[in-house]
Design brief:
alpha/beta; Rossmann fold; six-stranded mixed sheet; binds adenosine-5'-triphosphate
């Protein structure tokens, strides 16, 4: 189980906290969308969860163990259990789909093996399997620089799955994609969530997508949790409060589902 206990984060140049005494417990099977205006603290929350950002106070607790008490080897194991997908995909453009996906294995291997790029037949067959799951078998040997945004995010998802994570974290993974492609990526994420028995926690700006796919919505505002509940409980009023939107016509996203 993953918990955030009383976590505060403040960046050196900031006068306010990026996260302010946050408490959250994530449960098996949760498919969570994190909403909030730009600067609300969504990315900081994700970075805390995978250990990239150390809280100024409070604890991230994984399976009962506070991350701050773990030594580097244990932290590496925790990071392996948390797959991550990104807005700008973080792929190596000149490498093929297959080669990019294989890098998902890096956390399990010695630096030397990673350096020489030698993979076992089992690792290669696992990579082929996740590539097939995200629907890219026909593109396996294509360089990712020649793929569309949606295809690149599928590569990102396959790479994360190859890590065999228990938690999948997403920092605005559809922010660079058109609405139709975003919907298909969320649909794939939901399918993988069930198939791989993941806890999924994704930052997203599109409230409609969150309401359609999430089992739980968390809304942040100025570094604090202002909503934590079921999608149907995220009302129009809560939308206005979250985004400081004063009227329906000013809303960037519709709430129809
Ligand atoms: N590395 C950093 N150094 C200084 N301040 C930072 C840093 N990263 C984030 N911040 C600040 O912390 C606050 C929260 O930022 P964060 O990126 O977590 O928000 P966000 O909700 O993810 O925003 P967006 O939707 O625009 O990505 C913002 O005020 C931001 O300017």
């Amino acid at each position: 189980m993953l918990e955030i206990r009383n976590v505060t984060v403040r960046y050196p140049s900031m006068k306010d906290n990026a996260l302010n005494s946050i408490n959250l417990t994530f449960h098996e099977g949760d498919f969570i969308c994190v909403l909030g205006k730009s600067g609300a603290g969504k990315s900081t929350l994700i970075r805390c969860l995978n250990g990239l950002q150390k809280p100024a106070s409070g604890e991230i607790v994984w399976d009962g163990l506070p991350l701050s008490t773990l030594h580097e080897e244990q932290l590496q194991k925790v990071r392996r259990e948390m797959g991550m997908i990104f807005q700008h995909f973080n792929l190596v453009p000149r490498l093929t789909v297959f080669q990019n996906v294989l890098t998902g294995m890096f956390g399990y291997r010695s630096s030397f093996k990673n350096l020489i790029g030698w993979f076992t037949s089992e690792e290669k067959s696992l990579a082929k399997q996740v590539i097939q799951e995200v629907g890219l078998t026909d593109f396996m040997d294509r360089r990712v620089e020649h793929l569309s945004g949606g295809q690149k995010q599928r590569v990102g998802i396959a790479r994360a799955l190859l890590q065999q994570p228990r938690v999948l974290l997403g920092d605005e993974p559809v922010a660079s994609l058109d609405p139709g492609t975003s919907d298909r990526i969320f649909s794939l994420l939901k399918e993988m969530h069930h198939r791989h028995k993941l806890q999924t926690i994704i930052n997203v700006h599109d409230v409609q997508l969150a309401k359609r796919y999430a089992t739980r919505i968390i809304a942040l505002k100025e570094g604090e949790v202002i909503f934590d509940g079921k999608p149907e409980q995220f009302t129009d009023d809560m939308y206005v409060h979250t985004y400081d939107a004063s009227g329906y016509s000013e809303r960037p996203y519709t709430l129809t589902t």
